[in-house]
């Protein structure tokens, strides 16, 4: 049985660490990949849990709202890893919507929970986020801007799910003579 309160606390701490390092500005995007199956110690995609998603969604939503950061909840492979985002974000970044409603059987419990609870949800096929959190090895990298840089935290797992996080930075171009800001 997954300790949901401990999972919430670990997620809150991990997000705090990520936001501290990533230094996102208001209006930037954080992609969230989350396997509720992996959190339970089960195989990804085989034991979606709306209960776990409902417990963790407010932690993500509230923390990002405080910083005015747009969340992008990545769905599973059955919806081609489409992302649930606020309609405001879709419009701001001129993203094309796709027609699908994520749910535990296709999209995953977390993306489905985000779709149900977000004020004005929209689903898009892809995005280029400035940072991301990947709970359970869902492979969020396709939705990050280049260049992704790992972010470390003392939190290594949410429940039984492996945790990885990243921020992005602009590409460094030039050669030996190029100079870069600190």
Topology:
Blueprint: H1 4-22, E1 29-34, H2 36-39, H3 50-67, E2 70-74, E3 83-86, H4 87-92, H5 109-117, E4 121-124, E5 131-135, E6 148-151, E7 157-158, E8 161-168
Parallel strand pairs: 1-2, 1-5
Antiparallel strand pairs: 2-3, 3-4, 5-8, 6-8, 7-8
Write up what this structure looks like:
With 182 residues, the protein is α+β, with helices and mostly antiparallel strands. It has a single domain (4-168), classed as Rossmann fold. It has 5 helices and 8 strands. It has helices at 4-22, 36-39, 50-67, 87-92, 109-117, and strands at 29-34, 70-74, 83-86, 121-124, 131-135, 148-151, 157-158, 161-168. Strands 1, 2, 3, 4, 5, 6, 7 and 8 form an 8-stranded mixed sheet that branches. A hairpin with an 8-residue loop joins strand 2 and strand 3 (83-86). The model has no long low-confidence stretch (mean pLDDT 96).
